[in-house]
Amino acid sequence: MSASRDRTPPRTPEGEARFLLDRAVRRARVALFWEQAWPALARVGVVLALFLAVSFAGLWLSLPVAARIAGVVVFAGLLVFAARPLLTLRWPDEAAAVARLDRRSALAHRPATAISDSLATRPDDPVGAALWRAHVARALAAARSLRAGTPSPGLARLDPRAVRALAVLALFATFFMAPGAHLSRIGAAFDWRSLVPPAPFRLDAWVDPPAYTGRPPVVLPGLRSDDPTSLNAAALQVPTGSTLVVRGAGIDAATLKLEGGIAEAQPEGDQPGPAGERRYVIRGDADVTFLGPDQRRLMWHFKAIPDGKPSIAFAKDPQPGQRNSLVLAYRIEDDYGVKEAEASFVAAPPEPPLFPRPGAVPPKVGKPLVPPPDFKLSLPPGGRTGAAQTTKDLVAHPWAGARVEVTLKARDEAGNEGTSETRTLRLPQRTFTKPMARALIDERRRLALDPANRSRLVRVLDGLTATPEQFSPGAGEYLGLRTALARAQNARNDDDLRALVDYLWEVAVLIEDGTLSEAERELRAAQEALREALERGASEEEIRRLTQELRAAMDKMMRQLAEQAQRDSGTDSRPLDPSARIVRPQDLQRMLDRIENLARSGNRDAARQLLDELQAMMENMRPGSRQAGRQQGQQQGELGNMIQEQQRLRDRTYRQNRQGQQGQQGQGQQGQQGQGQQGENGFGDLQQGQQELRRRLGRMLDEMRRQQGQQGQQGQQGQNGEGGESGESGEAMGRAGDALGRADQAMREAEEALGRGDGQGALDAEGRALQSLRQGAQAMAEAQRGNQDGQGPGGPGEEAAQRTDPLGRPLRSQDYGDDFTVKVPDEVDAQRARRVLEELRRRLEQPERPQLELDYLERLLRGLN
After folding, report:
1. What is the pLDDT of residues 206-261, one digit of tens each?
2. How far apart are alpha carbons 285 and 259 in whole angstroms?
3. Helices and strands, number each (H, E), in the chain
4. Alpha helices in 537-626 (DSSP H)
5. Which helix (H) or strand (E) holds 471?
6. Rounded CA gap, 825 and 644, in Å?
7. From residue 440, how far is each of 431, 433, 519, 781 by CA, in Å?
8. Strands 338-347, 375-376: parallel, antiparallel or unpaired by DSSP?
9. Residue 797: its pLDDT value, please?
10. Whole-angstrom Cα distance, residue 33 to residue 100?
11. What confidence score (pLDDT) does residue 673 get?
């Protein structure tokens, strides 16, 4: 049979037959082995199917632990009993395989056995050997017909009631009864933990948002050994940078499974955190899962919300405020609030000339010698979103008066920065009236913006000091100019030039103010220190100390003013205006006390406003600073009287015209002519009143033109030193002149209409005149406010000062308490009021209305007049 084991069929017929026999023997062995093993495997499968069916049906979940143990033991015994035949399985031998071949092939003379057998007689018997070879030859010829047959385990005989089919049916039926919980139901059969109490454990977790967001911590679902019904999933939105804190007791919190933008946080310093605590930083969307000892699974899904960039924008254009300060109004928006904001300045490129020369190269902007006046901005209340305003005094900065581009920037705690649009403006500056002081300030600004202007400064200083008899400077002023020239010539580096810039300011102030500048400088410094402390919310002790310093500086300023008044008493022989307001030291002390009390009570905004009023009052007390304000105040008072007289004249015209119309309706055509003549006679008095009012307006216009001519000459002399406020005041006065000119023309038309007896035409012209007068009064008020805010030494106008007390409240004892600080109504308000009056008059002209209503309308119009 050695040849039969070779799987390569030999080339001889005998070898090929033996190869076929060997393959048939192998198939027969497999069939015999399957017939022996399959019944035992089927019994094992039935036991397993029944166990799974019982598990899927949820029987173990409803049984106590003892019953579970008993059930598992029973199924284990059945499994052992069913698998016992598998232990005795043996691989079939060759004789059994050959016998199966002969039995299943049903061939005569058992060819498989014949091929496998050998000759029993002696091999030297020729007759027996020949017969044997003939027999083997016939068996080999039949080898191709050998068949092992299909296995026949005989399960139907062993299981006549088909219990195996019922087990498989129960398995499939219960499998679809418990979708998604198959493993847990199988594991319930082996859950015997109640017999041995498990060790207690607990897992707590929460999310700490960043502190700057102001959000509270969020507690997440956790695991507790004594609460198996707790929630095991959570999904929430958290700010980027939040910290996930996991603290475990009796459990290892380090086995968390992290996915997405989450990583373990590095401990701060060398001190470790509490035992069993882990911290993770959430940088993006993340999923965290944890499998507890009781096989419960925790799942947390975090959606990270990034911190957006703050936005900052101008609420209105930058504009000068009181005492030439810069006022920036803006609005800040941010999701969690900003940390800080600032205003950034850069020098604006020079404006191109109106008529540039062909081929001219535009000037280059060099690197500034002095850094720009960047400063911090005040934040909205709470530091989050809202409108805010910052007032900064930059008159002493070398860039004052220069054209700059300002950009607002806001930064939040996360480091995000937002910027506003860029605005171009001219920084407010102090107005210097003396030409030499203005020249020094201009050259100081040029040197601060570009160190290359040093040579120009040397030429200017050399020219000012070469012929001092043309300027007639004082000894101290001349010495200051010579010192500045020497320092400009001998400067070796930028630090020397910066020191020169500061020195030029001191010289210019000395030339402008004389010995008063030192006291004013101390007073301004004390005021700025107190204002800065109020803005940053300083303590009460610091506010009290700064207030005492302001009192001392104010006392020194008052003494200087008194000495200046004594020195000027011989040159100014004008008597004191009896209507002028006298400010006593007690009034100033009360204002300081009130500022301190407001700061102590927490009303810092009101304290800053009162401090501005005090500073404006002190600056207004300087000699020669109120002459222009007095003139404008007188003109405003005269214009107010003219508005009232024009209103009364219009009401009289209306009543006269109404009486004429009623007479026409009652007397017919003849009476109409008589009343018309009577109306013309009545209109004659009104015409004279309108003519006198127009003459007064003409005199006021002549006076305004004369003042504007004088101011224009002064502006040409001091053009280099003027700021933006004087231009705005001049523009407002120009609008006032135009409005009053229109009022003069309307008065002339009303006068002509009254002469013709045209009452309705006179009413229309008088209405236009009244509206133009009001527009002129509003423009004059804007011009006066511009002078108050723009002039360095100026302050509230004389007229306003005469009508208010030292605290800025209107006096009720003069002119029946008229408060000229009330804003003049604009054109929209005037039109609305005029429409209301016209409607009242129209209804009064309808005689068919009840007499009671007509009487009420008459009284209402009389009260308005």
Report:
1. 999 998 888 889 998 888 877 766 667 888 999 999 999 998 887 877 788 899 99
2. 9
3. 23, 16
4. 540-568, 585-601, 604-620
5. none
6. 14
7. 13, 12, 21, 33
8. antiparallel
9. 39
10. 12
11. 43
d(C-alpha 558, C-alpha 342), whole Å: 36
End-to-end CA distance of the chain: 144
Distance (Å, rounded) from C-alpha 725 to C-alpha 325? 11
Q: By C-alpha distance, which of 618, 642, 639 is closest to 801? A: 618
For residues 625, 628, 634 and 636, what is the CA-based torsion angle, rounded to 10 degrees? -120
- State both tokens at 71: 């059930």
Convert the pLDDT of each residue in 256-267 to its tens digit. Answer: 889 999 998 877
- Provide the sign of the torsion angle of the four alpha carbons 318, 321, 325, 331, taken in this order: negative
**Cα distances (Å, whole numbers) of residue 546 to 462, 529, 599:** 43, 7, 12
What is the rounded distance in angstroms from the CA atom of residue 190 to the CA atom of residue 210?
46
Burial class (CB in 10 A: 0-12, 13-18, 19+), 64: exposed
Residue 38: burial class (beta carbons within 10 Å; 0-12, 13-18, 19+): middle
Tell me which residue of 315, 308, 309 sits closest to 388, measured CA to CA: 315
Please, where are the H alpha helices in 382-432? none
On whether the CB atoms of residues 245 and 227 are closer than 8 A, the answer is: no
State how far the Cα of 676 lies from the Cα of 661, in Å rounded to an integer: 9
815 φ/ψ sector (left φ>0, alpha ψ -120 to 50, else beta): left
Does 101 score more than 90 pLDDT? no
Nearest to 414 by CA among 303, 302, 304, 339: 339
Torsion, CA 460, CA 466, CA 467, CA 473, rounded to 10: 70
Rounded Cα distance, 555 and 567, in Å: 19
Phi, psi of 161 (to 5 degrees): -95, 5
207 and 236 Cβ atoms separated by less than 8 Å: yes
In single-letter form, the type of residue at position 570 comes to G
In tens, the pLDDT along 413-435 reads 888 999 999 999 999 988 887 88
pLDDT score of 638:
76
Q: How far apart are CA 731 and CA 432, in angstroms?
A: 21
Q: Show the tokens assigned to 369.
A: 């010698």
Dihedral sign of CA atoms 247, 251, 253, 256 in order? negative
The Cα-based distances of 312 to 340, 379, 391, 667 in angstroms read 11, 11, 17, 73
Q: Tell me the backbone φ, ψ of residue 238, rounded to 5 degrees.
A: -135, 150
With a CB cutoff of 8 Å and minimum separation 6, the contacts of 378 are 388, 389, 390, 535
What residues contact residue 692 under an 8 Å CB cut-off, 6+ apart?
none
Query: Rounded CA gap, 48 and 157, in Å?
Result: 21
Among 36, 33, 21, smallest CA distance to 147 is for 21
Residue 597 burial (C-beta neighbours within 10 Å; 0-12, 13-18, 19+): exposed
Contact (CB, 8 A) for 413 and 212? yes
Distant-in-sequence, close-in-space partners of 606: CB < 8 Å, separation ≥ 6: 598
pTM metric for this prediction:
0.49
In angstroms, rounded to a whole number, what is the distance separating the alpha carbons of residues 534 and 803?
29
Q: Per-residue pLDDT for 22 more than 50?
A: yes
Compute the Cα dihedral for 432, 435, 439, 444 and give only its sign: negative
d(CA 57, CA 691): 113
Q: Could you tell me where the DSSP H helices lie in 718-758?
A: 724-756
Amino acid at 596: E
Q: What's the token pair of residue 597? A: 């009390």
Q: Which uninterrupted H or E stretch holds 34? A: helix 13-56
Classified as helix, coil or strand, 464 is helix
> Which two tokens mark 89?
């399985």
